[in-house]
Amino acid sequence: MVSWGEVIRWSPEPLAELVAVLNDRYNRLVGCADELRATAMPEGWAGPAANAAATEAARLAAAAEELAAEGAAVRRAAGDVSDAITGLLHGVAEARSLAAAHEFVIGDDGRVTDHGPPPVCTAQDPDGSLGRAHRQRIAVELQDRVREVLRSAEDVDNDFCAVLDRVLAGHVIDPGDDRTDLAAAGNSGWVLGSLSIPAPTIGATPADNAAWWATLSPNQQAVLLRDHPELLGNRDGLPGEVRSRANLARIPAERAAIQQRIDAAAQELAGLSSQSEVSPGAIQWVQDEIDRLEAKLGSLNAVEATMRRPGERQLLTLDTSGDRVKAALAVGNVDTAEHVAVFTPGFTSTVDRSLSGYDNDMQNLQQHSQSLADRYGDGGQVATVRWMGYEAPQWSGVLDGNQSVISDHLARVGAEKLDGFLDGLGAAHSSTGNPLHLTALGHSYGSLTTGIALQEDTPVDDAVVFGSPGLDADERDDLKVPDGHLFAARSDQDSVPGLDMLDHFGVSP
Question: Which of 57, 112, 210, 230 has the maximal Cβ count within 10 Å?
């Protein structure tokens, strides 16, 4: 088992130097290929001596092929390990920087120790509970980062050992392959010497994801972004730029898959319609499925159209599972912005019908907030996000149990996702060291979703709800937001806040 104390002493330079030496030796060996073939059977030579010479030449050729394959395998593995160590040390540096910034210490055994002072009680945090929760969140994030560094280091160590074991055992070349020369043997070894890229852990937290990404080298990150964007686009904790590029790359395949399902459903509908005896309900079910799928295509069209609008935008979530497409789009850059606002809409909102209007609202909010920050504030950059990462209730589901707007089921499902998204923004900023002032905004049923999410530890500094039916909380202290930083707005023409839903969702703020 690799320890933290060992990993922090790893260095990529010796392996990079080894690769340079092996490259030189390999090229010189492959350059002897023609001479080796010529010595096998000089022209005009025959007889027992010639046969013996040919046998020995074949033995030497086989040994040279094995040596070429072994050399290629080791130089490939050494290069990959050197590259991987670069990523690992980046992950180490991020963890150490986060620890130092908050007065934590990471021991050689990987244990995280809090060396900071006790939380200070303030008007916004009278009993210090928010301060303690904040330090606990940092401690957990550091533990996650240490664990991910060690997991990736163990993966690199095991892969390298596996290659070296095969080289030492003389099992680099498959006896059954069809290689014909030293170069072909070297190519065989080159393929065998490649190292795997550590995959993200199942059930990873946003802090786990941020730590995992930080342990990858730029080359490994580029390979994943090119070959496996589906692993990255919706992974909370990764940089917004990475998520956006991955999600945009996924759209053509997602569109093709949905269109294929539409074509199959249309064919099924045509078959049903041609039958003399068929249940009207069966036809309606297939037609409803086609309508749902076409709405998904409409959602993808809305996403692409919005991303083409002037100004910087990021596609932070794209989820085509379930009945409707879920998405989160940012105006501005959530990675570099010091101030980020995340807006969660409510009842009847959908990506295909609502995204364009919400994008206008978020762009106006971003521009106005930026103007205020420049004129009266710290001048920090502002980004706004419309988070449509859950399936909000619709009129069609009012009488449909858990799908109804009078149930908090969809809000609770959405709150779990929103909580992860907010934590992911915080974890991504921790990785870069950029400060983050995070505001959660919720409207209507979206305020209920926001209120439930804020009952968990998140990096949210301020929360604003408007047109809220309640926050599913008995009292304000159930929300883990600093005192004086929870705001509510209502319109005299909006009856929802006044109804309080018979306290069904808690007292309206």
Answer: 210
Instruction: Give the rounded distance of the alpha carbon of 329 from its chain centre.
Output: 15
H helices of 279-324, where?
A: 280-307
Integer angstrom CA distances of residue 484 from 66, 344, 436: 72, 21, 19
**CA gap 254, 151 in Å, rounded:** 32
Q: What is the pTM of this model?
A: 0.83
Q: Tokens representing 82? A: 């050197």
> Cβ distance 160 to 198 under 8 Å?
no
Q: How many CA atoms lie within 13 A of 256 on its CB side?
A: 5
The residue among 150, 141, 137, 140 whose CA lies nearest residue 110 is 150
CB–CB of 444/347 below 8 Å? yes
Angle between helical axes of 129-168 and 48-101 (0-180°, round to 10): 170
Answer for the pair 479, 133: CB distance below 8 angstroms, yes or no: no
| Tokens matching residue 242 | 């990475």
What secondary structure does DSSP assign to 393-416, as a single string? --GGGTTSGGGSTTSSHHHHHHHH
Tell me the per-residue pLDDT of 377-410, one tens digit each, with 9 for 90 and over.
999 999 999 999 999 999 999 888 899 998 999 9
Q: Which two tokens stand for residue 195?
A: 């190292």
Contacts of 123 (CB under 8 A, 6+ apart): 483, 484
Helices (H) then strands (E): counts for the chain: 14, 9
Buried b (16+ CB within 10 A) or exposed e, 124-161: ebeeeebbeebbebbbebbbbbbbbbbbbbebbbebbe
With vertex at residue 337, the alpha carbon angle to CA 334 and CA 343, rounded to the nearest 5 degrees, is: 55
Tell me the C-alpha distance between 479 and 509, whole Å: 11
Structure tokens at 279: 């249940």
**Residues 448 and 349 sit within 8 Å (Cβ to Cβ):** no
Q: Which residues, listed in sequence order, are joined to residue 506 by a DSSP beta bridge?
A: 473
Q: Which residues of 440-468 are buried (b: 16+ CB within 10 A; e: fewer)?
A: bbbbbbbbbbbbbbbbbbbbbbbbbbbbb
Fold of 241-503: Rossmann fold (3.40.50)
What is the rounded CA–CA span in Å between residue 69 and residue 20?
16
Cβ proximity of 325 and 318 under 8 Å: yes
Q: List the 326-331 sheet strands across, edge first.
A: 313-319, 326-331, 382-388, 339-344, 437-443, 460-466, 486-489
Band the pLDDT of 25: cuts 50, 70, 90. confident
